[in-house]
Amino acid sequence: MSTAQTEEPKLVEHMVRTTLGTVAVSEAGEGPVLVMLHGGGPGASAVANYHQNLAALTPHFRVVLPDQPGFGGSYRPTEADLDARSITEITVDALLQTLDALGIDRFHLLGNSLGGAAAIATALAAPERVEKLVLMAPGGGWLPFGPTPTEGQKAMFRYYHGEGPTVRKMRDFIRVMTAEPKRWEDTVQARYEASLDESHIAFYHAYNAAFAKRHGMDPLWQRVHRIKAPTLLLWGRDDRTITLDGAQLMLKQIRNVQLHVFGGCGHWVQLERQAEFERLVTDFLGAR
């Protein structure tokens, strides 16, 4: 599958009203729907997470990029919201309402890290709607053998504490997220600036507090054997956030599953191994 295109496609943006709040969605391309859920680091958003992959994916799919609650242009769950339900439960509710509003019934679903947890939970909550599932180092489904929180999780917790966001802290965060951080130096400033939104900072404090109260992500690993959709697991061997050892439970328990591991790759497979990521995803999803 060729990934030689260099121009990013023009995105159509929507603000979709749900009963929880307004969800920001960007989309481009035509064909079977591919919903892509971003990770949960400071300043994250759907377009920031996946913009470099759109030129390769949009010729084959209608790519739908929602900002998850708390991130990007979407509404911010309150402390009370996060006490009542986990961020994953909130995201699944908002996502399914958003897709209903867009007239999307069945879809392929891809999720990275925090978005991977939401993707697993969506596949469990609405199995009749998810055709195929791609998970990149997903939270919740992962059961690590080593200590937690991991190095990457600690970097996320530190970012907004103490003196608050700084360029140095963002550089340290990207250093932990990737296997070759010098390659991504040009992303530091943009990601730092995106992390400064006051409402996002307030959400992140509430999110971190809720994460601590709940002792981590929802234990989705207990139910991954119920996933019906054919599933592709993508993992960086050198991931220090959602570590590779935790993949073994999903590999054993998910009925129809395959795993591809990238050496010399950290937590951001879609960026660090861009061409291979795009080829594997398009092949797995059966691109036109």
Automatic annotation (TrEMBL):
<dbReference type="InterPro" id="IPR000073">
    <property type="entry name" value="AB_hydrolase_1"/>
</dbReference>
<dbReference type="InterPro" id="IPR000639">
    <property type="entry name" value="Epox_hydrolase-like"/>
</dbReference>
<dbReference type="InterPro" id="IPR050266">
    <property type="entry name" value="AB_hydrolase_sf"/>
</dbReference>
<dbReference type="Pfam" id="PF00561">
    <property type="entry name" value="Abhydrolase_1"/>
</dbReference>
<protein>
    <submittedName>
        <fullName>Alpha/beta fold hydrolase</fullName>
    </submittedName>
</protein>
<feature type="domain" description="AB hydrolase-1">
    <location>
        <begin position="32"/>
        <end position="273"/>
    </location>
</feature>
<dbReference type="GO" id="GO:0016787">
    <property type="term" value="F:hydrolase activity"/>
</dbReference>
<keyword id="KW-0378">Hydrolase</keyword>
<dbReference type="InterPro" id="IPR029058">
    <property type="entry name" value="AB_hydrolase_fold"/>
</dbReference>
